[in-house]
Write a structure and sequence with these properties.
By secondary structure, this protein is mainly beta. The chain contains 3 helices and 18 strands. The radius of gyration is 25 Å and the shape is globular.
Length: about 450
C-alpha cells in the first residue's frame, strides 16, 4: 500500500472475562495505557474483536470517529494535499539497548502482554547517584510493576544504599491493588543509620550556615489497607511507627539537648506510635506516571502512649494531586501537588515534626536539602509541566516550581514562604508502566540548589 492505514489495539478495550461489558466506549486512554486509542497503531497482524457470549454493541458514532481520526492522522503540506505519515511507537531503555546491541540476546524489549496476562515487569540494577543530604551514593534498586484484573497498576519499590556521608538506607514502599480495585495496600518501611544536618525550627531564624548535625538510627513502619466504598473512594485503617535511637545532636562538636529551644526527641531515643485512619480518593489509572485523574489523601494519626509513644499527640495529613492537559490532544501535562502536614495538638519528637523531604517518597522540596525547614505545621504546593523531547517519547522534560512554609518556633505562625524553581530530564525506563528516570536541577532561596534523582515521576 502507498497510504498508511491507521489500525487500533482493540485489546486495550477489553475487560476481565467475569466483567464483560455490553458496550465498549472509546476514550483517549484506558485503565492501563499501552498505545493511546486516539493514535494509529501498526503491527505484523490485524487485531479483531469477537463477542463469544452475551452481546456487544458497536455504535455508528465509533465508525464516524475512526473515519475522522483517519483524516486527521494524515498531515497536509502547504498546498493542502495530504502527505504520508506514520505513528511513531514509544521506545524505552530496553528498545534503545536492543537497537544498539541487537546481538545481545539478554536484552529483550518490553512486551505489553505481560501485564495483560498477569505478568510482571521487574527492574533490578545497581546505581550511582547523588542527593544533597547523602552526597554520592551507591545503591541497588528493585522495582516490580504488575496489574491485576480490572485494577490499577501495582508497584513495589525497594532499595539498599550506602553514601559518602556514612549513611545506610534500606527502604521498601508498596502500593498493591486487589482485583477490581476492591482493596489497596499501601506501605512505607525504612531502616536507616542516618547522620544528617538540621537547621532549627521555622524559616526566619534558620540558615545553611547554622547547621546542627544529628546522628541516629531510624525504623519507620507505615502500613495501611483501604477498602473501596464508592467508585475511586477508599477508607481504611493502618498503623504507623517512628522509632529513633542513639540520637546525638552536635553544634560545632558540642552536644546539645535542645534545638531552637525545642527539647523533645533531640537526644537519646524517641518513639511515635499510633493507628492510622485514612480516606483516599484516587481516579488516576497509573500512579507511576499519571496524566489524568485526581488523588486526594486524608490521614489522621493519634499517637498514643498506650501503644508505646513517648507522648500523646495528634497529626493530620491533607494531600491532593491533579493532572490536566492544556489541549485535548496535547501530549504535555500540567501536574499540581499540595502536601500539608499539621500537628493538631501535643509536642512531637523533633525528628517526627513535619519537614522538607520527609514525605513517603522524599520528594517534597526540590531545591532544598532534606530537613531544611521543619516546624509543627508544614504547607507545600508544587506545579510541574511535563513534555516530550523526542517523538518516540524516550526523552522527555519538565519545568517546575514549588513553595513551602512552616510555622515558626516561638510564634507558632506562618511568616515566610520558601520558593524554588527548576527543570529536568526524563528517560523512559519502561514504556508500558510509563516509568521514567527523573533527573532534575532546582534552585531555592538562601543560595540553596542541587541535583535530584528519582525513579518514577516526583508526583
Amino acid at each position: 500500500m502507498n497510504t498508511t492505514i491507521p489500525t487500533y489495539q482493540l485489546n486495550t478495550l477489553t475487560k476481565p472475562e467475569r466483567d464483560v461489558p455490553a458496550v465498549f466506549f472509546m476514550d483517549h486512554e484506558t485503565v492501563m495505557p499501552i498505545v493511546p486509542i486516539h493514535l494509529p497503531y501498526r503491527s505484523n497482524y490485524y487485531k479483531i474483536g469477537v463477542c463469544l457470549r452475551g452481546s456487544a454493541t458497536m455504535k455508528c458514532l465509533i465508525v464516524l470517529w475512526l473515519a475522522v481520526e483517519t483524516v486527521l492522522a494524515q498531515p497536509t503540506d502547504t498546498t493542502g494535499r495530504q502527505i504520508q505519515s506514520a505513528y511513531i511507537p514509544q521506545q524505552d531503555i530496553a528498545d534503545v539497548a536492543h537497537t544498539l546491541l541487537p546481538r545481545w540476546k539478554r536484552i529483550v524489549p518490553h512486551d505489553s502482554a505481560r501485564l495483560n496476562t498477569g505478568g510482571r515487569f521487574i527492574f533490578l540494577a545497581p546505581q550511582v547517584g547523588y542527593t544533597l543530604q547523602t552526597s554520592f551514593l551507591a545503591q541497588v534498586l528493585a522495582n516490580v510493576t504488575f496489574q491485576r484484573p480490572g485494577a490499577n497498576v501495582s508497584t513495589l519499590v525497594g532499595s539498599a544504599a550506602y553514601t559518602l556521608n556514612n549513611q545506610t538506607i534500606l527502604s521498601l514502599t508498596n502500593s498493591v491493588w486487589n482485583p477490581q480495585n476492591r482493596l489497596v495496600w499501601m506501605g512505607d518501611w525504612r531502616l536507616m543509620h542516618y547522620p544528617q544536618g538540621t537547621f532549627g525550627l521555622g524559616i526566619i531564624n534558620t540558615s545553611l550556615n547554622r547547621e546542627i548535625s544529628m546522628d541516629y538510627e531510624y525504623l519507620r513502619v507505615y502500613q495501611k489497607v483501604l477498602k473501596r466504598i464508592a467508585p475511586n473512594l477508599y477508607a481504611g485503617l493502618g498503623y504507623a511507627l517512628d522509632l529513633h535511637w542513639n540520637i546525638v545532636s552536635r553544634n560545632r562538636n558540642r552536644e546539645v539537648v535542645q534545638i531552637s529551644r525545642y527539647r523533645y526527641g533531640v537526644e537519646g531515643r524517641s518513639v511515635s506510635s499510633g493507628p492510622l485512619f485514612s480516606l483516599l480518593y484516587d481516579s488516576r489509572p497509573n500512579s507511576i506516571n499519571a496524566s489524568r485523574g485526581y488523588f486526594v489523601n486524608l490521614q489522621y494519626r493519634p499517637n498514643m502512649q498506650l501503644l508505646g509513644s513517648d507522648v500523646n499527640y495528634q497529626t493530620l495529613l491533607l494531600e491532593g494531586r491533579t493532572y490536566l492537559r492544556p489541549f485535548p490532544n496535547s501530549p504535555g501535562v500540567f501536574a499540581f501537588w499540595s502536601y500539608n502536614a499539621l500537628t493538631l495538638n501535643g509536642n512531637p519528637p523533633f525528628l517526627d515534626l513535619p519537614s522538607t523531604g520527609w514525605d513517603t517518597y522524599s520528594n517534597t522540596g526540590r531545591g532544598y536539602v532534606q530537613g531544611r525547614f521543619r516546624g509543627k505545621n508544614l504547607l507545600y504546593l508544587e506545579t510541574e509541566y511535563r513534555f516530550n523531547l523526542t517523538r518516540n517519547q524516550f526523552l522527555g522534560g519538565v519545568v517546575f516550581a514549588n513553595a513551602q512554609t512552616v510555622t515558626e518556633a516561638i510564634s507558632g505562625t506562618f511568616q515566610r514562604v520558601a520558593p524554588a524553581v527548576g527543570t529536568g530530564l526524563r528517560l523512559k525506563m519502561n514504556k508500558f508502566s510509563r516509568t521514567n528516570l527523573a533527573i532534575d536541577y532546582a534552585f531555592g532561596s538562601d543560595g540553596s540548589r542541587g541535583l535530584f534523582f528519582n525513579f518514577g515521576e516526583v508526583f
